[in-house]
């Protein structure tokens, strides 16, 4: 009781604190009571609560107009007022998703309101009004013009609404002291009391049950309560309220105890069963009645409960065919009272005479020498399949208990068996026999080992192996022969001989043999037969028809009839004698079948004697052939003249020369001339030369010639005229003061700038040349100071895997070590450095291609092995067919 009193005091204090706000606290517009309700506002549009962006509390009201009709584009609120009394009204509002001139407008019976007051912001703003009531039911309105299309009209949000009276009514109504209850039964009671009095007027009464508000009466002095629990005690109190929000003290407490429910529901007398089949039936009955209320029914099957229901039907399943059952039902109320037992309904389920479906997909798997696994798809039945019986060669070998797999054991090796299955239901109906699954058990017995392997007829390069036939429980498919532990082939069928070829003379070999049966069982290793081939002391035949043709200044072409040998020619040795220099003789191996053969690297205008000798696999070298005598031709034609000689980077003592290579294919070197005198040479692959030791403020003429292998020299290239700069100046600076003088020769002089140069743009810090626009040139040469990326081909280069490349691309959006689009746009790129980076990627790609080629070759070899194996299996299959015949 002390706890209830404490709660009443808290409620009372709360009501007194907020008593001056006469705005009803039952919707989201008020921060005092955040109920998810839109009342008491009215509208023809769309009014909802919104929790996305409340100004205060957790909810706001959202109003959306849906047409141009006045009722559909406004919301209204009527509050109880005293005529002539002043009210302070505060409303927080903001424009919604579509703002079409929302405003406070057309208020009724309120003097002092400015019409309209526009809502101009899409953020929360407070709007305040001080108005005087001209009637007891003034109206507040908010307009939001619609578009005439549903759900896309103008919208507005409101929240935190307060309406307070400026009157000084602070007197609370008198407390109620005669709260009484009447007509109390099991679930309800009626409350009543004498009217409270007030200096102005009592406007409402609030009723509490066990200190929790359960409703307002709207001014009446009675309140009906239902949905109570029978045999339960409740405490009731009431508060009176006036128009100013003043609340009376708590009333007297009226304790009510509802009547206990001891009355049982009525007995069911019309329980019936219908739709009875082999495994189910449907029960139904008329509803039982009760003084309070029936809450459910319990269903019994042969005195055992099988379920409950709140309806008057129950479907019974899981019954057995051709079986008798008794069913009864009890009605229950909320107090646990149970009716008497209903009438008994007896049913007998239908008999099951339908056989299960026939199994058509019996399969075997995991076949060994003594067992196999059987499996099949479940059979179907009008009731249910309860078992499967398995048959082997027509005899039952067991049941599965409903499983659709069965492991057969105790079989014999290399034996054929027929299996079948039938399905069985609970009524012992049996399906037709399934398809027949025929198997032959595996062969796991290896052939006997060979113990008498021997060799005969051994020569320098071959030998003949023989042995006695192996025995097996099935048959011998073939024999596999091994040479020094490596397989060298199999016999065709079960023959017991094997000819070994391609041996090396004078070498020892170890041979073994395995027997293989059709199930690929392999015998243990045979005895080892060691064979030593005969030594080869026979020389290859001597070449006698060596001839030379198509001789040039540096090459000649040799042809001859290939030599013969008792074993085989493996190579030829070429002997070259320079007749102008007898000490300059060479000999080297050139391959086994090299006729014709082109000799290169000869000196022009030189006589030579050429001979060859065949070499066999044992290293025996034949006598030298006949001599082919030749004299290389003289080259009197000069190579093409180099072109486009240019000078660059000229200082007071140095300059760099660059030229375009000669078109002659036999160019051997370039010679550089300064004022007609030779100052240096370069190889045929280098077309530039740095010249030093020049004199300041001096003019020089440079030319280049090409020289071929016959030392023929071309004429002079175009002249590059260079004038060195003054001593220590590093160059002759051109400025806007002297650039256009007649004394300045732009044709022969160079432009030199100590600082940075800008063309069409100011010079840029860190860049020697900045150009605003395009650049065109016949050639651009970039001399890199960094490493050229040939390091990619070094042995220790860490080539990333393609998976690592993919992961980097997915993470960064560009190749590793290559600038991103953002970096290029921000910082630009260095042409030379970028070419090096791109070449690095090309070289990495080359390595990937080489790896892929190796993998393709490996797969090709594996494919060939599989093809060979397939051919062997085909041969085995053909042999088996012949054996069966």
TrEMBL record:
Question: Which Gene Ontology terms describe the biological processes this protein takes part in?
Answer: homophilic cell adhesion via plasma membrane adhesion molecules
Q: Please name the source species.
A: Urechidicola croceus
Domain of life, per lineage: Bacteria
Repeat listed as a keyword? yes
Coiled-coil spans are 842-879
Please state every residue range assigned to the domain named Cadherin. 250-358
Q: Which GO terms describe its cellular component?
A: membrane
PROSITE patterns named in the record? CADHERIN_2, FN3
> Which keywords describe this protein according to UniProt?
Coiled coil, Repeat
Protein name from the UniProt record? Fibronectin type III domain-containing protein
Which InterPro entries would you find in this protein's record? Cadherin-like_dom, ECM_Regulatory_Proteins, FN3_dom, FN3_sf, Ig-like_fold
Q: Which Pfam family is one of this chain's hits?
A: fn3
Q: Which GO terms describe its molecular function?
A: calcium ion binding
Which positions fall inside the Fibronectin type-III domain? 172-261, 264-352, 355-444, 449-536, 542-635, 641-727
């Amino acid at each position: 009781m002390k706890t209830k009193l404490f709660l009443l005091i808290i409620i009372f204090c709360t009501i007194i604190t907020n008593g001056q706000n006469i705005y009803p606290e039952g919707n989201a517009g008020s921060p005092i009571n955040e109920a998810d309700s839109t009342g008491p506002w009215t509208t023809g549009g769309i009014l909802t609560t919104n929790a996305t962006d409340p100004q205060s509390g957790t909810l706001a009201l959202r109003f959306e107009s849906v047409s141009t009709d006045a009722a559909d584009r406004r919301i209204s609120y009527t509050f109880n007022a005293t005529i002539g009394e002043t009210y302070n009204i505060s409303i927080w509002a903001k424009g919604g998703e579509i703002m079409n001139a929302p405003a406070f407008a057309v208020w009724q019976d309120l003097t002092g309101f400015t019409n309209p007051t526009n809502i101009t912001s899409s953020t929360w703003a407070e709007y305040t009004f001080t108005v005087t009531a001209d009637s007891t039911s003034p109206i507040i309105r908010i307009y939001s013009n619609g578009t005439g299309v549903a759900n896309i009209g103008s919208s507005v949000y409101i929240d935190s609404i307060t309406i307070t009276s400026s009157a000084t009514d602070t007197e609370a109504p008198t407390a109620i002291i005669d709260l009484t209850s009447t007509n109390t039964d099991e679930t309800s009671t009626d409350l009543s009391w004498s009217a409270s009095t007030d200096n102005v007027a009592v406007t409402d009464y609030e009723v509490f049950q066990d200190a929790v508000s359960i409703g307002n009466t709207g001014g009446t002095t009675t309140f009906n309560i239902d949905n109570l629990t029978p045999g339960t005690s409740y405490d009731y109190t009431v508060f009176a309220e006036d128009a100013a929000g003043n609340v009376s003290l708590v009333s007297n407490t009226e304790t009510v105890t509802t009547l206990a429910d001891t009355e049982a529901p009525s007995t069911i007398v019309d329980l019936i069963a219908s739709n009875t089949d082999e495994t189910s039936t449907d029960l139904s009955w008329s509803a039982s009645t009760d003084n309070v209320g029936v809450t459910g029914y319990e269903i019994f099957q042969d005195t055992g409960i099988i379920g409950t229901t709140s309806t008057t039907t129950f479907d019974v399943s899981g019954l057995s065919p051709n079986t008798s059952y008794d069913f009864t039902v009890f009605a229950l109320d909320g107090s646990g009272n149970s009716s008497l037992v209903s009438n008994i309904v007896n049913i007998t389920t239908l008999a099951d005479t339908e056989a299960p479906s026939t199994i058509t997909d019996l399969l075997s798997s995991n076949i060994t020498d003594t067992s196999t696994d059987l499996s099949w798809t479940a059979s179907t039945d009008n009731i249910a399949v309860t078992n499967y019986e398995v048959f082997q060669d027509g005899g039952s070998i067991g049941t599965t208990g409903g499983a659709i797999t069965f492991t057969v054991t105790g079989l014999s090796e290399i034996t054929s068996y027929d299996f079948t299955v039938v399905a069985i239901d609970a009524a012992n109906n049996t399906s037709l026999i399934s398809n027949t699954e025929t198997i032959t058990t595996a062969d796991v017995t290896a052939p006997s080992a060979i113990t008498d392997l021997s060799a005969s007829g051994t020569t320098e390069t071959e030998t003949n192996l023989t042995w006695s036939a192996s025995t097996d429980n099935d048959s011998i498919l073939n024999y596999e022969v091994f040479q020094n532990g490596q397989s060298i082939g199999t016999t065709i069928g079960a023959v017991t001989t094997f000819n070994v070829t391609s041996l090396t003379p004078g070498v020892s070999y170890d041979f073994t043999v395995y027997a293989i049966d059709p199930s690929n069982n392999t015998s243990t290793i045979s005895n080892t037969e060691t064979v030593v081939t005969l030594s080869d002391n026979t020389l290859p035949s001597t070449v006698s028809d060596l001839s030379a043709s198509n001789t040039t200044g540096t090459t000649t072409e040799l042809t001859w009839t290939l030599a013969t040998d008792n074993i085989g020619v493996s190579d030829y040795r070429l002997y070259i004698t320079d007749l102008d220099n007898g000490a300059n003789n060479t000999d080297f191996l050139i391959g086994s079948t090299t006729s014709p053969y082109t000799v290169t690297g000869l000196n022009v205008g030189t006589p030579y004697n050429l001979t060859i000798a065949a070499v066999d696999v044992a290293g025996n070298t034949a006598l030298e052939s006949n001599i082919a005598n030749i004299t290389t031709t003289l080259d009197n034609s000069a190579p093409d003249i180099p072109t486009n000689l240019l000078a660059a980077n000229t200082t007071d003592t140095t300059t760099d020369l660059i030229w375009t290579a000669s078109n002659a294919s036999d160019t051997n070197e370039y010679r550089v001339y300064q004022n007609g005198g030779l100052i240096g040479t370069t190889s045929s692959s280098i077309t530039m030369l740095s010249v030093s030791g020049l004199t300041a403020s001096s003019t020089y003429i440079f030319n280049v010639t090409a020289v071929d292998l016959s030392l023929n020299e071309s004429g002079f290239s175009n002249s590059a005229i260079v004038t060195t700069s003054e001593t220590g100046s590093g160059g002759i600076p051109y400025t806007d003061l002297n650039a256009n003088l007649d004394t300045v020769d732009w044709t022969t002089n160079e432009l030199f700038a100590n600082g940075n140069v800008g063309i069409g743009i100011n010079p840029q810090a860190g860049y020697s040349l900045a150009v605003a626009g395009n650049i065109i040139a016949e050639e651009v040469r970039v001399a890199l100071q960094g490493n050229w990326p040939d390091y990619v081909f070094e042995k220790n280069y860490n080539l990333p895997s393609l998976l690592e490349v993919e992961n980097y691309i997915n993470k960064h959006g560009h190749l590793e070590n290559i600038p991103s689009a953002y970096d290029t746009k921000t910082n630009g790129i260095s042409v030379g450095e970028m070419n090096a980076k791109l070449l690095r990627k090309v070289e990495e790609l080359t390595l990937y291609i080489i790896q892929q080629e190796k993998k393709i070759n490996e797969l090709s070899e594996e494919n060939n092995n599989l093809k060979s194996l397939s051919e062997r299996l085909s041969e085995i299959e053909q042999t088996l067919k012949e054996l069966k015949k």
